Amino acid sequence: MLQHSRLSDGFWAEALLTAVHIINMSPSRPLGLRIPQELWTGSKPNYDKLRIFGCEAHTLIPKEDGSMLAGDRSMKDKWGMSRKRNIK
């Protein structure tokens, strides 16, 4: 996931947590193709909010607090993605 997203090795913990989250939302052969999250919570997982690991993200700020979207720097800088990546 880190190589594909071209993020630095500093994001290994986020990559690991994301992989575990996806595994827990996927059918498991040892569980008879049942979904671990469904067995733990009793409800089916919601896949609507899944995004590509390492994709650009923006913060939505309510109208009463200012503009609709935070500037480009808000989330990208927070997650260390503002640096230009060496794309080959």
Care to describe what's here?
The protein is mainly α and 88 residues long. The chain has 2 domains: 1-54, no CATH class; 56-88, no CATH class. The chain is 34% helix and 0% strand. It is built from 4 helices and no strands. The chain has helices at residues 2-5, 12-24, 36-41, 72-78. The radius of gyration is 17 Å and the shape is flat. The model is unreliable at 72-88 (pLDDT under 50).
Q: How many strand segments?
A: 0
Number of helices: 4
Q: How far apart lie the N and C ends?
A: 17 Å
What Rg, in angstroms, do the CA atoms define? 17 Å
Helix- and strand-based class?
mainly alpha
Q: How much of the polypeptide forms β-strand, as a percent range?
A: under 5%
Give keywords.
disordered C terminus; mainly alpha; 2 domains; 88 residues
Question: Layout of SSEs?
Answer:
Layout: H1 2-5, H2 12-24, H3 36-41, H4 72-78
Describe what is shown at a glance.
The protein is an all-alpha fold and 88 residues long. Helices cover 34% and strands 0% of the residues.
